[in-house]
Design brief:
alpha+beta, Alpha-Beta Plaits, 59% helix
Length: 908
Amino acid sequence: MSFFRSETMAYYQIIVPKESAWEVFNEMGKLSMVQVVDMSPDEPQVNRPFYQYIRRADEVISKLNVLEVEMLKYKIKNLKCSDYQQFLERMTLYTKEINQSEDKWFDLIESTLDEKYSQLIEQIQNLEQISVRKNTLFEHKAVLIKSKEVLGPTYYTKGRNVAINPQIGGVPEQQKVAQPLYNLNYLVGVVDRVEANRFKRMVFRASKGNAWIVLSDIEYSRIDSSLETGNLDSDKSAAKNLEKQRTVFLIVYTGGGGGQDFLRAKLNKICDSFNCAKFVLPDDPQLLVQKTLELDRSLDECDNLLRLTSGKIKELLLEYAQIQPQLKISLLEMSKLLMVKEKTLYTNLNYLYQKERIYIGFFWAPKHVEGELHHMLHQLSVSQSNTSVGQIIELEPPEKVLTPTYFKINEFNNVFQEIVNTYGIPRYKEVNPGMFAVMFFPFMFGIMFGDIGHGGVLFILAFLLVKNADTLKKLPDYAALVQVRYLFLLMGLCALYCGIIYNDFMSLTWNIFGSCFENVPDSEETVYIQGCTYPIGFDPKWYIASNELNFFNSFKMKFAIIYGVSQMIFGILLKGVNNLYFKDYLSFICEFLPQMIFMCITFGYMGIMIMLKWGQSWEGRTDKAPSIINAMINIPLQGGTTEGKPLFDLESQESLQQSILFWSFLCIPWMLIPKPIIEVIQHYSGKKHEKKPSKALEPKDESKEPLLPMQTSQKSINQSALAEELRLQLIQKEKEKELRRKQLEEQRLKEQAAEDDQLKDQPQQLLPKQPEKTGDHGHGHDEFDIGELAVHQIIETIEFVLGSISNTASYLRLWALSLAHGQLAKVFFEKCIGAGIEDGNVIILVIGWPVFLHCTIGVLMCMDLMECFLHALRLQWVEFQGKFYKADGIKFMPFSFKEVLTNQPKDQ
């Protein structure tokens, strides 16, 4: 049952020669079952042996991303990989077919890309420059045309002494005659269209009304589409000029010299501040025609250059868009995946310790893959007969190092395990709450969301997700939704089941089997048909009873309590299972037993009382029905005495409740006192926290051979001897560290004792406050803090006792959310379409049906669904898992090419 407890993990040492390190780690990455341990976690990456390879790989990936962006701009199809495991297998076969070593792809891709990338960047820069020039030429031409329209033909016949064309300039037609002539100056150019009005106001204020300005938008319909495809980066000036539409401005101001020179300077500064492009306006009409023709020729030349340059860029991009027949992906995608793979491989090689031409490292792997590791090394030794492939030795795990937690998961239980992992990773070999989340989480959701209609809709949608999962996985917008399809499927199924139990279909009931109550003639009363039992769920008559709300409130509240108490007792039981598995008999006796007894005799007894009261008919004698709430309150407040009617024999019930009171109070000191006292005794008697020499580098079994011994050639013998020497050096370093640590500890204790002798005569309040050493309550630490141990146990005891009450009350959210869902559905139906159905009013139905549909989808199927999901999440995490789950483990993160390729960023 690998999903009940994590897989058994083993700790291995790997010793591999430099010349075969790449091949060994390449196979380990394909195996996806090895987590390499970083030998020097504090060592900067730049100082590691393979840092240059990683940096080069990053540079290649960055260049490939640029090519991918350009392909999107030119709408060139880049065939992606859909199955990364298949890609790795096909790549291995393809490499063998062309008789090439797999480790040669790195240099081949890098050298080929460098040449092509340089050509591409050069062409992109040329295209950008041509685009900027074409844009400038077009704006210049637009300025000339617009200026001629505004100034009119008289500008070229009379020079600077000109009357403004009133029809275009905005002067009324009546003022055409008798216009005075002035010596005018002109400033023309283009400004961003969004800034045009602000620019106009600024000119007016700066000139104090002495400058006249005309604005006219440029029509960009003549700009070639090739201009837009020339943009490499939206942050470049060319792209900005295209994205921001421009407006032609013509500023006319009078006179020259003196104050007018000052005005000209102010206007030029304003133009510069608005990033305006200014142009010279020809004085002669012949020059205007020549300039226009010159601009047209230049624009045609730019068009030709843009087409040629864009064609060259497309030609370069199409080379990387070619489909590789053996791999069924583009050359760009193949190159990118291989570089990501290489980067991952060299990152893990950096975790090793280097000694001359030997690498030594450690890794975690599931115990069951030992045979696959053996087979992998054997295959490498056969294929590389002239080179040693190294050896792998199983070792004892280091002390104080957490073993990673690994579960075999599939597409079905992955989402439930992720729910658990979001709260915390399970400890190694701890009972996995993910196994029970498959059952408990959807059912708690179903209790709160119980409705045949709403649950059925959710179930059908989830079923369609499951059925079309393979197709939807390929669509980025639906990929995340597909991952949770089985969670939605079970949530919908449980909501549908609970809806059948409630006999609730969007606030309506189904009378399928016929009611067990019949109406009394000429009366509003109903009588029960003797011997009749409604087969499934609630009798539909309850929904039209006068006490409908009280009845369903009572049922759902009591059911929530019974379910919650049962789930918490089960959680405590799992705690005892964990204690026995880890042979923590002290916690089993001093924590599990009193906690189980306390929960069973208090809230378990309350649940039994609810079921006993439920099992009896109180018809006609409701005044004799006992109050369970009062009975539970009287246990601690009145010593277990019963007020009012007892549930069963009065004397027996009081005697039982007095016993419950005694044992429940006894469980509190049982949880509080014995465990810390016994731990202190064990510590000082030497039975616990005994110092043991580290066996991290010692073989687990001296008689056990390594998974694959090195070959017996003279070179291999020398490498093996060097590796053994290195291993012994590491063992010696470990022993020296341990010795230094002991010496420092002894020195610290001596200094502390001397300081205590100096200060023993001083008043207590003058003594310096000693910092408390943090730790897991003394477990596994050199310093044993009795005070911290006692405080921890006090907190644990108070938390459990008070938590038993608060957690039981927390399960009432099952009742509250279920009631709210049912009442909301009832209100929406009655207020939107219920009256129309009852009166037969078509108009109300036509108006109310869309409102009802939107309320059902928006409020119940979205908002209420999310609310029920979050409340179920809280009950799963806190009320259930909190009884046994430590959640302080570390996740097994294997060195896996498939995992890295699957999780690489998709938005490149």
